[in-house]
Design a protein that fits this description.
- The chain is of the alpha/beta class and 321 residues long.
- The strands form two sheets. Strands 3-2-1-4-5 form a five-stranded mixed β-sheet.
- About 3% of the residues have low confidence.
- Bound molecules: 5'-O-[(R)-(carboxyoxy)(hydroxy)phosphoryl]adenosine and zinc ion (ZN).
- The site of zinc ion (ZN) has 5 residues, from helix 4.
């Protein structure tokens, strides 16, 4: 069974040819990072236009790399949501048109379900039930995956997604977009104990997350204690009026990155382990762009080992959309 799969939920234009559900014959991703970087985040209208330009060549490359012709396909698949509506429409309508022209079935794929299941592309034997931590620029969700197609949402962020917090902290530090990978790299050279940022536990009784308070704590720290590190273009107008004289940076940007990352990762790890223990599940998987974070991967694996859990991370290329 050969499926051509199309993904345009956010800013990456992607196509893959997959055999029998798990054998990825080709996967082509055209990144739009350069288009959106100067705006500090994804601009939906630009993302749609780029998808229209890129999708044809991306599909053709995926078919070529897999050595498959259109006539050899058995079905098409496309992300139906959640995502940027205009961006989704480009991929979905392309897939619908191809399905009509080729008289092939079209499978609509839920974006979050594909993150929950992405580990199975590399490790098809990961056993159900498992807890899945889906952490990206748009979501921070904990699921109990009981079986394929059977998922229960255990917790979610009540405000910012974890990736959004990484991106906003990077913006405050003038590190560009997307910020997660840069923070990850810089954190490795900083002292995570240099600043004691809050651990944003909403409450131990819930598996929900909250990251907007942590982001604000980083802003107040930079404003009051290290204004030299605060990038002027990383601020809203309101914030820029609040920046004081300060005393010069006593800490380095690397320290702020490390301390912020430590706080965010600690909460993600604690809630994920709590979710597995409270449901009596012994397997945990991660997914989404933030699952590429080196500290999250290490800390969750260590905490999992201490708690007797099997923890699986997809390779970084399969973490993202
Ligand atoms: O899943 P994804 O590619 O797109 C969606 O948001 O759906 O995730 C992108 C997010 C961005 O916020 C980016 O900063 C973050 O994932 N990210 C990371 C790392 N790599 C990507 N965050 C922390 N550490 C990383 N190494
Ligand atoms: Zn995603």
């Amino acid at each position: 069974m050969l499926i051509l799969a199309i993904e345009t939920s956010c800013d990456d234009t992607s196509a893959a040819v997959v055999e029998d559900g798990v054998n990825v014959l080709s996967g082509v991703v055209s990144s739009q990072v350069e288009v959106h970087a100067k705006y500090g985040g994804v601009v939906p209208e630009l993302a749609c236009r780029k998808h229209i330009e890129n999708l044809g060549p991306v599909v053709q490359m995926a078919l070529n790399e897999a050595g498959v012709k259109l006539e050899g396909l058995d079905a098409l698949a496309a992300t139906v949501g959640p995502g940027l509506v205009g961006a989704l429409l480009v991929g979905l309508n392309t897939a619908k048109s191809m399905s009509y022209a080729l008289r092939l079935p079209l499978i609509g794929v839920n974006h979050l379900e594909s993150h929950i299941l992405s580990i199975l592309l590399e490790k098809p034997d990961v056993p159900f039930p498992y807890v899945a931590l889906v952490v990206s620029g748009g979501h921070t969700n904990l699921y109990l995956a009981e079986a394929p197609c059977r998922y229960e949402l255990l917790g979610r962020t009540r405000d910012d997604a974890a990736g959004e917090a990484f991106d906003k902290v990077a913006k405050m530090l003038g590190l560009g977009y997307p910020g997660g990978p840069v923070i990850d790299r810089m954190a490795g050279e900083g002292n995570p104990e240099a600043v004691d940022f809050p651990r944003p536990y909403i409450s131990p009784d819930t598996l929900d997350f909250s990251f907007s308070g942590l982001k604000t704590a980083v802003f107040y720290f930079l404003r009051d204690k290290a204004p030299a590190l605060l990038a002027s273009d990383g601020l809203t107008d309101k914030q820029s009026h609040q920046v004081g004289e300060g005393t010069g940076a006593a800490v380095k940007a690397e320290d702020v990155a490390a301390a912020f990352q430590k706080s965010a990762v600690e909460v993600l790890v604690a809630k994920t382990v709590q979710a597995a223990e409270s449901r009596g599940v012994s397997t945990v998987v991660t997914a989404g762009g933030v699952a590429a974070n080196s500290a999250l991967r290490k800390e969750l694996s260590d905490a999992g080992e201490a708690a007797g859990l099997q923890v699986y991370h997809p390779s970084p290329a399969l973490c993202t959309d």
